[in-house]
Amino acid sequence: MVRISxxxxxxxxxxxxxxxxxxxxxxxxxxCTTVTSLVSACSNFVTYxxxxxxxxxPCCVAMTSLNNLADSGDNIRNVCRCLMELIxxxxxxxxxxxxxxxxxxxxxxxxxxxxxxxx
Length: 119
Description:
The protein has helices at residues 2-27, 33-40, 43-48, 58-69, 73-89, 94-104. The protein is mostly helical and 119 residues long. It has one domain (2-104). The longest helix has 26 residues, at 2-27.
């Protein structure tokens, strides 16, 4: 049963990420909801510092989707701005948010740090 639940959770995360990604391509510049939703797949790690995300986990699938969103200059800047807003809002968890791409083996094209200039 656990394998089915884990598989179902991962499959659901991938489907949600794909739907959000398709909607995001239409109107990304006006909305950080998708970025927040993707990062929320990592809420246990961001909140508690464990378990570490591993490639293939729902969290890392979400980080890969986030990486796919940051596919051009404008999109990179928009993803960056949204993430800077998140780490500003959740400053006690900023370090955990900043480490997510590294755990998942993705590079967003910028450093997640409160001092990052997204321009």
